[in-house]
Amino acid sequence: MEKKIEIKNVSKFYGRKQALFDIDLTIEQGMFGLLGRNGAGKTTLMKTLAALHKKKSGEITVCGVPIEKAREIRAMTGYLPQDFSMYPSMKTDEALDYLGALSGIPKADRKKKVTSLLRKVNLIEHRHKKVKELSGGMKRRLGIAQALIHDPTVLIVDEPTAGLDPEERIRFRNLLCEVAEERIVILSTHIVGDIEATCENIAIMDEGRILWKGTVDQLLDNARGHIFTSNVEKRFIPQIKKEYIVTGMLSQNDYTTVRIVSDTEPDLPNTVLTEPDIEGAYMYCLHSSGCDVKGGEE
Amino acid sequence: MLFGKECRRILTSLTFIIYCFVVGLFFVSQYFEECNGDPYIPDEKISEDHDVIMHGAVDDLATEYFANNYTCYPYGFYKTVRLKDKDSKKVRDCLLEISGLTNDEIMEIRDKGEQYYIERGTQNIMYYDIGEMPVSDTITYERFCELMGQVDDILGGGSNYKVEDIVFRYSYVPMTDEEIEGIISDLYDKDGVAGGYARLFSDYMGIVLGIMPVFVTAALVSADRRKRVSDLIYTRKISSFKLVFSRYTALVVMMFIPVILCMIAASIQLIRNFDFSDLALYRMFTLPTFWLLPQIMIITAVAMIVTEVFSSGIAILLQFAWWFHSNMSNGERLSGSIGKFDLICRHNTIYGRDEFLLSRNDFIFNRVFFFIAAIVITALTAYIFELKRGGRFNGFRLFGKDSIFRHKT
After folding, report:
1. pTM for this one?
2. 10 Å Cβ neighbour count for B370?
3. Contact A52 B235 (CB under 8 A)
4. Contact between residue B357 and residue B287 where contact means Cβ atoms under 8 Å apart
5. In this structure, what DSSP letter does residue B397 have?
6. How far is the CA of A118 from the CAs of A125, A148, A287, B379, in angstroms?
7. ipTM of the complex
8. CA of A80: which chain B residue's CA is closest?
9. SS3 A172
């Protein structure tokens, strides 16, 4: 069985509103990042891949299985929703056991799996805590554990790090990388840092369309020659933000070093061309696709 | 496997604890208290004697007509009805036909009744002490029922003259000693005591079990959406039929356990109050199970499907309306007749075995019908659940931001 998800010309509507426009994407084994702003259509695509939403047109096959065969898709897919939540009064191990039972895992295997997964996500000491007593990061780790309980070929993870503190975010990203060794992991996020740290292949979405797809290196190459830094007086900052896409600012005394995304070299003092970072490359991708990304103040 | 887990979820829910408390309280306050000690022995019976019924009804009708003050209980709520001249004349015409009197003779009776009050200085005459009204020799019981029906319609329903209830309201006559002995011996010989008590037990428990299961069901079924767990459940491998039927069976079994405990308590009470050799104790378990289990099943099934399609609130409102209608439609009749589609079957006495057996076929049809309907509805719920988890149906929301009444742009 080939570990690959193929998405061809997929469209999706909510009533009359079109949410996905002719999505074409091939996702292979390993970590795949789906990057985009809030409302870009990432969750809709994730839910369509998890057989939770019905597409209007197009084709999706998950490891050769058409998405219409929902039962088979469910058996091979693990899903961590954006707003992961579980019955609050259930204990952590009980919650995992319950979801394992719904995944059809025999009782004897379930007990072992629950213990090993709780150990893997570092929740073994909190196994008797009620779900409502877990912190945000712990809940997210429980979320990953529940998505892995039936050992799925595909893991769909929707905005998993939103709201986590930096330490938890790093821990979570590392966990994702570990589990991606043998399966397809699709990580949807609007946090560029998550993608940079974990994914080799990515796609960028906006308003229901795929704007760009390729490797992280290709994205960086794409932006090469369009990322600049300038050392400017602080008083010019509002004006610069109106005219350019500013991706970073570092203040030193009366001067600020600004990082700018631009098609051409900005007409600013002390401007130098810089090596692109992923954040800048992402902004350049949005900008070059015609999206309004300037953060100017009125 | 999953069934056990669902049972555990139900067991630890607050709604189920409240359910157990209310069912237990109802059992103790209604059945247990009433059945403590020696059995109540009735001294009246329903005669179904047409003369007795017609005399009683025409007396009441004349009294209310003279005062133009009719007591009605539409849907169980007390209401006083005062008729306008046109309607009042229609009632008078019925009264004339039943009594066989002329208008002048009727007025004479009214004046006599008024005189009684005028002599005592009462101005607001609400009740006429008119003695006994005559009943025409020529009127048949069928025609009398027809006229009673017309009067009830004029009064807007729920009056003392509702045709289905007049037998139970106006035909009580004292029982002879032989008759009293007869019903007591029926209780011992034919019902094995427990059979009679089982009917009363089922009657009382049917009232509380006509409404309470909806709360437990609606709470459990809506929990996925309320706790935002739906997507997690939907993406599991389990089939919709297996999941829905596991939950359904768990709900029915868990909600029936308190009823079984009440049956045990009722049996212990019987053992304490009666000679054990007189008791056919198994009847305290068989009849209530046949009586009450289909009721819990149908309410649970309907609550599940309504919660899936609409919301838990709608399920509760709908069940309340059904419960209320079923309770009220029995009217005065608390025993003796069970309709084919009555949700709540009534037989509010430990006696009346023969009377109960007259409705036996309808009663069996009723319970089997609800049993089968419950299974069919649950299968339909599983189908709706499958549509929902595949994103092909999202249910109808009557309120809130997803309301079907909101204009969508």
Report:
1. 0.86
2. 22
3. yes
4. no
5. B
6. 8, 11, 43, 36
7. 0.90
8. B232
9. helix
